[in-house]
User: Fold this.
Amino acid sequence: MKTPINAQTLKHHFAYHWWAYLLAIIAGTFLVNLLFTVTTPRVPENKRVDFYVYGYVDDTALNTYMEQIRVKEMPDMEVMSSVAFYPDSSYGPMTLMTHMAAQEGDLYELPREDFLSYASSEAFLPLEDDAELMAIFTDAGLDLRRGWRTLPDSDETHLYGIPADLLPGLSKYCYSDNGYLAVLAAGGNTDNTLKFLHLLCRDMLTAPEAEATEAPSPAP
Assistant:
């Protein structure tokens, strides 16, 4: 004789078999996430440039600028975008360390103290041999000496960063306290990151234009 299905039998069933339903939900969630991860298209490292800013960012404006660069001057790239994370005392340093340890991002803007710390550990690419980049600042009469650092374990001195205040136009898009631009040495797309850095420095040498204000209409 079949057991009737009613509130009493359902209550009894779930009382003894709830764990099986919970296990099924967990397994289903895992399989859905796995399927999503496997099937999601991934952009190859050499087809993307990520600009990580440890500071304050106008995401819309900066991403719009980067997309214009991609379309007009770097069409081989599939993705060019910015990533912002904020230098709060609680989670900021941990977040930055996590990104750096995972070798995420290509170009960074960091506050001075963080730049000095990571430059000393050779996390960034030396820039002094990049003739095109050097010419941008030489032609503009700008001194990069603040970006040079001497490694603590040797007498080697390299240009690891570009002082952001030499690029006043950058303030329209992002800001790090006494910031520096630096290229991650372990980035997976160094050549294109340097090309983007050239274009960024070229475009940001000039301060952003002040917003035009409409003159009040004369009284009738």
Q: What stands out?
A: Residues 107 and 183 are 5 Å apart (CA to CA). The chain is about 40% helix and 15% strand. The chain has a mean pLDDT of 83.
